[in-house]
Amino acid sequence: xxxxxxxxxxxxxxxxxxxxxxxxxxxxxxxxxxxxxxxxxxxxxxxxxxxxxxxxxxxxxxxxxxxxxxxxxxxxxxxxxxxxxxxxxxxxxxxxxxxxxxxxxxxxxxxxxxxxxxxxxxxxxxxxxxxxxxxxxxxxxxxxxxxxxxxxxxxxxxxxxxxxxxxxxxxxxxxxxxxxxxxxxxxxxxxxxxxxxxxxxxxxxxxxxxxxxxxxxxxxxxxxxxxxxxxxxxxxxxxxxxxxxxxxxxxxxxxxxxxxxxxxxxxxxxxxxxxxxxxxxxxxxxxxxxxxxxxxxxxxxxxxxxxxxxxxxxxxxxxxxxxxxxxxxxxxxxxxxxxxxxxxxxxxxxxxxxxxxxxxxxxxxxxxxxxxxxxxxxxxxxxxxxxxxxxxxx
Length: 394
Known about the structure:
alpha/beta, about 45% helix
């Protein structure tokens, strides 16, 4: 057996993540602290493809907004479900407009195309792009416009509450969300000077029409899977100001419903989004798959050693140290779950979550080079710098 000092030393690396908790616990700047803005017409644009399960919720929540005036444009991106008919059923409110999407042009991904079509129909001096899987508090738009005006920002984006309902959402989402929160905090994004340090959350992007046009609209990022990240980088490159704030009291979203949906969604985003996050650094971009493997394998080492030691007498002396590292890691992930409003007991499942996240990361890397699949569309030749991506619709 190893002595206690050596056991503690071997387990010490799994104490290091606790150093990130003070940063993750900070919730500033908060959109709830922004004044209530008013005045300009806001055109709210929802790109919607096969969103029958959620479109009614987001539309009803937006129509309850305390901000005036606004118009709400739902762009039906050639859905194959009941999305359009559901919106038509809500259209007794004159502020709601259903936009029938045109055929996807060569070289475009679906979401940028839907957003761009909404912009072409919009009348407002302010544009809000938001997702169909969100729910808005009545004060959200007022506070966001207030932040845009008082911060003299060209774009306001937020970090909402992430609702995780099913078992797999609660097991996997913390693994991925932790890396994103570590990579991009609102305070660091707001003082960023390099494209690699900025991000926008496509679930909520409020911008002035003038700035949006100056940045090239969504046409400038039409070939990007992580179009929100690319748009933020474009804004920064054009000298435009971004403001990122927490909005957990004012907005919530449920990104994925169940394991299949979660795997499909993150397989689309992780690899290509990770590469896009290093737009000017080819070496780091090439290392993205390695970074992902290391990030999730890190959590798998102690449980793997612990299991192996039970069957391999030669490794039995490592069992106490690995058990300590597993216990420390479980406490860490219970705290992360608590911060995400997930029952802390799910932190005990962290090895399963890390294993599934590793699988998704590898799957994303393998598929991302060749094709992207989302909402019944398959895009072949997903990653590109120029030229058109081949696509086919299902």
